[in-house]
Amino acid sequence: MRPFDCPNCGRLNHFEVRVCPACSATLGYDPEADAFRFLADDRTTWRERGGRPADMMVCANNNRFGICNWLTTPGAPNGMCRACRHNRTIPDLADPAVPPLWARVEEAKRRLFHSLIRLGLPLETKAEERPGVQGLAFDFLYRPGSLQGGHKVVTGHDEGLITLDVSEADDAHRERVRQQMGEPYRTLLGHFRHEAGHHYWSRLVAPDPARLEQWRALFGDEREDYGAALAAHYNGGRKAWTEGYVSHYATSHPWEDFAETFAHYLHIVDTLATVRGFGLSLTAFGGVNGDGRVELGFDPYAADAAALAAEMAPVSFAMNAVNRAMGQSDLYPFNLTGAIVGKLAFVQDMARAARGG
């Protein structure tokens, strides 16, 4: 995503900011305006750029746990912001290892919600669920000893409920699991985007017969035994990682193929929005237009999949080169083939239809 300027002094800040490093103003993010507000000297009034008052209040999760930097409107359900109101279960905070891990979980979740809101995807809570409309909720769980390799929580999705192992917020634990699984990429934000993909399959694909048939033509038949497919995958895999799949895990079952593709759509959109937010271009590669210029009207949140892939190719090459210069692994170790772009186009069309054109 783009960098956010402090509404009090104009300094650029990261999305996780709570206090502006330049002017020391207390900041809060307003998801409806996609902008930060600052707390006035009276410590009760949130103000927009120029000092205009905004009818906002701090999310209840910040008041109670100091865990959220989003604002919400008076009268919001349980005083929660648009992201926190989807939490069903938070981890037991009595263990001193848990609060900092949960804080990182919530930071990643807010980045997910920023993308979902910008894309115009539906975000019903479980309280708003009704026939044909699946709500979204989160269980954030932690089991003592999981950081040392003990019994852990299984991260997954079931009918709109995403369960996430809070241990995944620990870098050492996550890297150990990544190596055990033979994965080129494993991040906390990636988990959120993947599991959200499962939710939107149930929310937007499964209830629509025409869209479901189109989906099956691209991803396969989801009626294949899911448990058997995963068992086969983890026992050596029945399918090779070919150019038709964005990751090896995507080969395990059509549901996982879609979730991985959905996650990569969000990876690409957010990466390109960030690059453009800083005004970066890739003139060494001729730019997107082939003449050294980046197309100024290009909006990653609305662009077609082919345009996204065309720009992501030189951007990811450059980012990978920077990472290698720092002795790090490639930031985006994937190749977007024509078949994968076709699947990304399905996700992009689904998002476009969900927001009404």
From TrEMBL:
Species of the source: Novosphingobium flavum
Name of this chain's protein: Putative zinc-binding metallopeptidase
Record-linked InterPro entries: UCP012641, Zinc-ribbon_6_bact
Domain (Zinc-ribbon): residue spans on this chain: 4-94
Lineage: Bacteria, Pseudomonadati, Pseudomonadota, Alphaproteobacteria, Sphingomonadales
Superkingdom in the source lineage: Bacteria
Gene3D superfamilies found in the cross-reference section: 3.40.390.70
Pfam families: Peptidase_Mx, Zn_ribbon_DZR_6
